[in-house]
Amino acid sequence: MPKTKFPAVISTFLLCFCFWLLLTWSFEAQELAAGAVVSLAAALLSARFFIHEKPFWLFNPAKFGALFVYVFVFLGELIKANVDVAKRCFGGCTDVNPGIVKVPVDLEGDYARAMLANSITLTPGTITLDIAEQDGKSYYYIHWIDVAETDREKAGDIIKGRMEKWVRRIWQ
Amino acid sequence: MALRIVIDVLIAVGLVFAVAGTKGILKMPDTFCRMQASTCVSTLGVLGVVLGGALYAFCIMGSVSTGVKVILIGLLLITINPVGAHAIAKGAYKNGIRPDKEMEIDDYRGDFE
Question: How far is A142 from chain B (nearest CA, A)?
């Protein structure tokens, strides 16, 4: 089991405390104290599972800016894909051509890979089934509702769109 | 008044996507395509309703705490939903569920078996 590190505890505590503030939305001393105690307990117990890499990456303004831009990039992709799948659903659900494509991914680190995989899963029309590592490169197995391109590199470009570039900017 | 129209349009858009996703869940030909349709409900379907509800809470009810809670619900759904979708799809594939029609391309089968 990994050891609990102090910076990781601090950043987990900050996150928990922000959640507490947002959920209770009251700033009385009693509420704040109770929240601090609960968050500290949660942070001590869960920091070693929650944070593996640098705990304070979000305090870097460039990365925070990239995360902010990424939200809008992702929303754009989300709306495009949603309209596409909704059209297929209203069109009688026969206009599908499903398949599982193995797509190469050029990202370092667990967080970056997990974030891109989750973004792909969240976009309707694509679900990440698995991540594999072969010869130092990582691959996603992606179920795609409409296989427009069977070449893996090109299919990857279509599926990932602009998201991969921004995820790389956030985490590196 | 204009605000009220914006709120209603947001909620209506969310409902349209939810109906599309539900129709997909019922009518799609195989398990994986049904899961794809279900993501429609949990992304734009939820986002539209959450945004509409948050605007209503902030501007018409005038209650900031309710609005923040509504936005938190949307945020949590967005972060947790893909984990479940991925686990269900992978579990279905590993349990031997395959579409009736042959898939266009299936890279997972060769590497996995």
Answer: 9
Contact A119 B44 (CB under 8 A): no
Asked if B36 and A145 come within 8 Å (Cβ–Cβ), the reply is yes
- Count of beta carbons in the 10 Å neighbourhood of residue A171: 21
Q: Are residues A33 and A79 in the same domain?
A: no
Q: What ipTM is given for this predicted complex?
A: 0.84
- Quick one: B89 exposed, middle or buried, by C-beta within 10 A (0-12, 13-18, 19+)? buried
**A145/B86 Cβ within 8 A:** no
Q: Are residues A86 and A73 in the same domain?
A: yes
Residue among B48, B94, B111 at smallest CA distance from B56? B48
Q: Do the beta carbons of residue B39 and residue A102 sit within 8 Å? A: no
- Looking at the structure, tell me whether residues A102 and A32 fall in a common domain: no
One digit per residue, the tens of pLDDT, for chain B of length 113 reads 889 999 999 999 999 999 999 998 898 888 888 888 888 888 889 999 999 999 999 998 888 889 999 999 998 988 898 999 999 988 888 888 888 777 777 777 776 65
Distance from CA of B2 to the nearest CA of A (A): 24
Which residues neighbour A26 within 8 Å (Cβ) at sequence distance 6 or greater?
Answer: B65
Domain ranges, residue A51: 6-55
One domain, residues A129 and A151? yes
